[in-house]
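Justification of resources, computational component.

The compute hours requested in this renewal are based largely on the per-chain cost of generating structure records like the one below. Each record pairs the submitted sequence with a full structure-token output. That output is archived, and it is also reused by downstream analysis tasks.
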Amino acid sequence: MHRTDFLELEDLLSTEERAIARTVHDFAATELAPYVADWYDRGTIPADLARSLGKLGLLGMHLQGYGCAGTTATAYGVACRELEAVDSGLRSLVSVQGSLAMFAIHRWGTEDQRAEWLPRMAVGEAIGCFGLTEPDAGSDPGSMRTTARRDGPDWVINGSKMWITNGTIADIAVVWAQSDDGIRGFAVPTSTPGFAAYEIERKLSLRASVTAELVLDNVRLPDSAAFPEVRGLKGPLACLNEARYGILWGAVGAARACFDEALGYSLARTQFGRPLASFQLTQRKLADMSIAVASAGLTAIQLGRLKDAHRITPEQISHGKLANVRIALEVARSARGVLGAAGITLDHSVMRHMNNLESVATYEGTEEMHVLSIGRALTGIAAFR
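The structure output for this chain reads:
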């Protein structure tokens, strides 16, 4: 038995899934973990990080063809878990690249769009972002104000998008806009005249991640930039479900990392002549954290199996995202308490995780929206409005 895998959940993974977990864990431990506190402190990430992740095969790894690895959903999940055990911002880069931008092009794009962008995105040569959220349209994306209008054979897009991960480093932006034909999706090269991205600064969370506002001022695109078939919110919501799935796995990694640090600290820290871990109240905290981490891990594995069997529902993904992020936040806060004053510094990871998880609890659907999604599934009554 491993102390941070009390129920030996790794035995539920296949040989390939365990191998991927080990590979990503080892890469994260050597190439990411030693530097992430400094990246967080400076509010930046290395410019070549995506290429390193692409070389490892993590970008769009659950997609088929076009240079993507074509792994199981569960394998993608354990990769997200190991990345977020280091930092939520690093997992966000992979989620937005693979589960939002790449998935949108893979699922809804034209064959030309797939051939042009996906192979480059899979190796980190091209970065993608996903423009759905707006300053006044977060949980209600159907009220977006960004518009796409026809002008002869072209489309002209005007509007702005907010809280966009990868925005200032992206080469391609998937942008959703209102049109006379309903909500449409577009693959927008960020070099297109009229497209601009501005980094959002002074963040207290997800600092090892690029967050931007996108502004589209008469961005003119050929008809070939539009996703040809999808209309309405079906397109972006399908992408969000992909991202939420990765998040529910990532939260397990953040929770495990906080528990591991609290356990190690409590065994090494001496108070009143004995280890902090020897006190009953500390052991209660550690036991509760262990149970919580195991519960989140079981949820993730079951949802991974359902997704691999093509049986998963959006409401089940909402369950996993809501439950596991809530658990991770509780574990991070409890771990911070075990570390005492030391827990507020970047010498330890628990408060960095805690700050990050406050954003994770909000993006890709707030807690309130996931509660209502589950409530609708249970009762058959939609209570969103």
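The radius of gyration is 21 Å. The mean pLDDT is 97.
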